[in-house]
Design goal:
mainly alpha
């Protein structure tokens, strides 16, 4: 299952659409690029991602090396269930340099893609980086728990979820037991740390 981002955080598309002939250069280039990305999301059909992939690849051809567009192409392939291709574009986007919320989303989706590919250690490395750089991101913590579980580290996965619940669920009945939740989270995290590491997987012929 693909875990690409479902939304777009930028601005809207101009009423007249995008200029024919591509994206202009100069001071408005960034705004035009955001509008172009928004249009790609607005016209996306998750059941038929081929047009969206073509659209974002065309934008990337017009802006080669754009970290943002490398990420968007990766996300389109991810939504289409093409994890191997998505992985390549996510890695290129990270190498090209992302920042802010786009970096958070890329690390999350990259880590999730690696999990789907069975690369659990690499998935955890990506999501733990996201956890360090974006400690207030609930979505990162949820996907980190998924990867911990996939890596057979169920104690750590439950610890992450219990800690998240204690931090974020503010209903009186949960808040009453927040200290107990945190205590159990710490206990499970300690169990995870005390467990010997799993032996390396046999190489695939």
């Amino acid at each position: 299952m693909a875990d690409a981002d479902d939304g777009f955080a930028g601005g809207g598309v101009p009423a007249g659409g995008l200029p024919s002939g591509g994206l202009p250069c100069g001071g408005l280039a960034e705004a035009e690029l955001e509008a172009a990305i928004a249009r790609g999301y607005a016209e996306r059909d998750r059941g038929n991602m081929a047009p969206t992939i073509t659209y974002f690849r065309r934008l990337l051809d017009e802006h080669p090396g754009s970290a943002r567009l490398l990420y968007e192409v990766g996300g389109a392939h991810d939504t289409a269930g093409e994890e191997q291709t998505a992985r390549v574009f996510y890695e290129r986007a990270l190498d090209a340099g992302l920042s802010g919320d786009v970096l958070r989303r890329c690390l999350l989706q990259y880590g999730s893609t690696l999990r789907n590919l069975g690369l659990f250690d690499d998935s955890l490395a990506a999501l733990e980086r996201a956890r360090r750089e974006f400690p207030d991101s609930d979505s990162v913590r949820l996907f980190l728990a998924l990867s911990l579980h996939a890596a057979s580290r169920s104690d750590a996965a439950v610890a992450e979820l219990l800690q998240l619940a204690a931090d974020r669920i503010t209903t009186p009945e949960v808040a009453r037991y927040a200290p107990a939740l945190r205590g159990n989270a710490a206990y499970l995290a300690d169990l995870d740390l005390a467990r010997p590491p799993a032996p390396p997987a046999d190489p695939v012929d």
